[in-house]
Design a protein that fits this description.
Layout lengths: L13 H12 L5 H8 L3 H11 L2 H11 L26
């Protein structure tokens, strides 16, 4: 378990935390995708990012994601309806 944050169903591994951070930094990955995959709400993601990043990096990330339409499915345009990049492996 990483810094007392855990998924609703199981503890997060180091690999899970790394993947969540990667997804959180991606512009087109919505917080809803992180929630469906790991069970973390946007507030949980913010707590994880604050705990795992340097303060300056966290501030840059928050400034980048605050109000960004692509990070919230409800704010996205209708044509943006996927969680994965077409080049990404998997289903």
């Amino acid at each position: 378990m990483i810094k007392s944050l855990e998924c609703k169903t199981m503890p997060l591994t180091t690999a899970d935390v790394d993947r969540i951070i990667q997804m959180a930094w991606e512009d087109r990955t919505a917080f809803d995708a992180i929630e469906s995959q790991f069970g973390l709400t946007p507030g949980d993601v913010i707590k994880l990012m604050r705990a795992e990043m340097k303060p300056s990096s966290f501030r840059l990330w928050r400034a980048r994601t605050a109000g960004r339409k692509t990070k919230h499915v409800a704010l996205r345009e209708a044509e943006v309806n996927r969680f994965r990049c077409p080049d990404q492996k998997g289903s």
